[in-house]
Amino acid sequence: MKVVKHKLEELKAVAFVTYKEWSAYRTHSLVSVFVGPIYFIVQYFIWTAVYGGADTLANMELSQTIRYFGASVLIGYLTMDFADWNLQMLVRTGKFLTFTLRPMHHRFFALSQKIGHRILGFFFEFLPCLLIFSLVFKVDIIPENVGWTAISIVFAFLMNFYINYCIGMTAFYFTQASGIRLVYQLFAQIFSGALIPLNFFPSGIQHLMMLLPFQYTNYITAMIWTGGGNIGGINLSAPQAVLCQAVAVIAVYFLSELIYRLSIKRFTAVGA
Amino acid sequence: MKHIKMYLACAHTAFSRAAAYRADFILGSIITLLSNILFPLVTVLIYTNGAAFPGWSMWDVLLIQSVYSMSTGAAAMFFNSVVWETMQHIREGSFETVLLKPVSPLFFIAASNFDPECGGLFIGGLVLTIVSVAHTEICGFSSVLQFVLLFFAGLAVMSGLYLTMAAITFKWVGNSRIPEIFDSIKTFGKYPVEIFPRTLRILSTLIIPVSVIGYFPASALLGRLEPIAFCSLIPCVLFLAFGIWIYNRMIKLYEGVGG
Hints:
The complex is a heterodimer.
Chain A: H1 2-23, H2 26-51, E1 56-57, E2 60-61, H3 62-79, H4 83-93, H5 96-100, H6 106-136, H7 146-168, H8 178-191, H9 203-209, H10 219-226, E3 230-231, E4 234-235, H11 238-263
Antiparallel strand pairs in A: 1-2, 3-4
Helix pairs in contact in A: 1-6, 2-3, 2-6, 3-6, 3-10, 4-7, 7-10, 7-11
Chain B: H1 2-20, H2 22-36, H3 39-48, H4 58-92, H5 96-99, H6 105-112, H7 119-134, H8 140-168, H9 178-186, H10 198-207, H11 215-222, H12 228-231, H13 233-251
Helix pairs in contact in B: 2-7, 3-4, 4-6, 4-7, 4-8, 4-11, 8-11, 8-13
């Protein structure tokens, strides 16, 4: 219990400092207040035109698709992460050395930073956009099941972080690993469901995606938000979908730990 | 003539630099290409699910989007790095090193930051355009001429957007999210303009003429160009002129910190 309390205090301290640090750049976050609604408007008109008179497409009604894109934007503000970039920069410059000397696992430090950063995102990106979608665009954006959606967002947040951290650890093996990061982002963009709900993909690809981590960072959460639950073409209830997400998060956590133990042996500091 | 020679020398240097790190250059070009031609995937998935943009076949829409990619790639080669280089100089307070050069600062920044990596995007867009054209019917030689005219007008808009972004960095120091704002506006140019309501159509045609980037040139090839497309040529030229003017104007706001 004492260890848990101590960890929480560490997390709180790092998150608070990160929040304060990034608060100096809050206008950067406010860019989302413009970009998010513009993106949503475009999606609204695209899908309204595409649906035409059709009731459903890929088992989704127009209203659900529009809510899906609104939810995707909002989820993105809560789960956004650049731990990969940060870790690659620390390893490449040798600054990672300073973290190996601290009595705290760097991954936990990075996670705490991310929590602080996204709390700022909650206030300066998520809430303003939620209000714009709800009050200006009159979209029914309130989640179908607030509790399960909140849990799913937490898992999406962790999933995104652990995957990015794994990608960041490629810096221990390559001098310049930004290409790997870009390739990952490319796949994530397609298979996380950020561009189009995964229901629109052929069923074979949907089944394949069950084994990939991407959909657990956005798609599953957006589907739970909008009242659906569909993995690989199989309909799931919200608790079942969250359970799948939890299993995936645990698997990626252990994968990140394994990679960390293997890759830390390769780290040669350059003086920081 | 002197400026053309200087520009060619800078472009030659950029290619030599890229050749020194060939693998990185090729990988970078491929990733740039793939990440920017992703959005046609959405169109393909929409059509394979039996839906459609009313009045537009899949290849018609892909033509719009491939012309958009081509235009983006071409403009990015010349002006994309102007944004990031200007932003970095201002953040570091080293813009003096540009101001001291015996040429226009804008010309110097643009010439010395020619980006051959964006050529991958242009080539990808070109290939997709050719494939799309092969699946559609071009309406004669005059359509091709109209396409060329409107394509260059689209380049003017893109260039104007890049210069406006770069100009903003003089005031909004170090905000790397500025391009996101303009990217979101450009999204209107990737789809048939008829799907948007009247206000947005006017906005994207005459005020910030992003429809000229992809939609109008593709419509010209398909022989379904509306007369208003030619009205949008004026705002395109004005947009580029505004970009150049605002960039040079904002330079006066620069406060050096020693370089």
